[in-house]
C-alpha cells in the first residue's frame, strides 16, 4: 500500500507521515528530501539557481520513481499535487490523504519557520497571509481530490496518525 500525504506547507505532512510510517510499519519517503539528495542542493538553492519549473520537474521524477515501491508513506511537498498531473497520478497509484488546515493555523505555523521555504522566506507577515490565502484558493480544489481528507488543526501528530489509520481500515 502506498499512502501519499498532501497538503499546504505547514499542515504537518512530514511529522504526520513519520508518525504514520511508524504506526503502520512502512518506510517513509519525503519527496523534498529526495529532490535535495538528487541535486546535492537545498530546495532554496535549486529555486535560486534553476527556478521553480526545474524544481517541479525534479519533484515529478521523484514522485514517478515511487511507482517501483510496493508499500510506503510518501510525504509530498505542498505544491507537488498541483503540477504535472501529479494529483491524478497519486490517486491512481495509491491512497491520497489531504491534511486540511485553515489559513490562520498555517500562518501561525509558517510565520516562525520561513527559512528554507523559497516561496515564503522573504515575505513579511501581510504578504505571507496573502500568499497562504491565495494559494489555498487555487490549490484547495486539487487537494480535495484526495481519497481521504483529515482536519489537521486540532489533533496532535500521534492522534492524527491514529485517525488516518482508522479511516484506512474503514
Walk me through the topology.
Elements: E1 2-6, H1 13-24, E2 28-30, H2 31-39, H3 43-50, H4 52-65, E3 72-75, H5 86-93, E4 95-100, H6 103-110, H7 125-143, E5 148-151, H8 157-169
Parallel strand pairs: 1-3, 1-4, 2-3, 4-5
Helix pairs in contact: 1-8, 2-4, 3-4, 6-7
Secondary structural class: alpha/beta
In N-to-C order, the SSE pattern is EHEHHHEHEHHEH
Query: What overall form do the CA principal axes indicate?
Result: globular
| Tally of individual helices | 8
How would you sum up the major sheet?
5 strands, parallel
Give the helix proportion (percent range). 40-55%
Given as residue ranges, the uncertain stretches (5+ residues, pLDDT < 50) are: none
* Radius of gyration (Å): 15 Å
Termini separation (Å)?
15 Å
Mean pLDDT: 93
Query: How many β-strands, per DSSP?
Result: 5
- Content of β-strand: 5-15%
Main sheet: which strands, in order across? 2-3-1-4-5
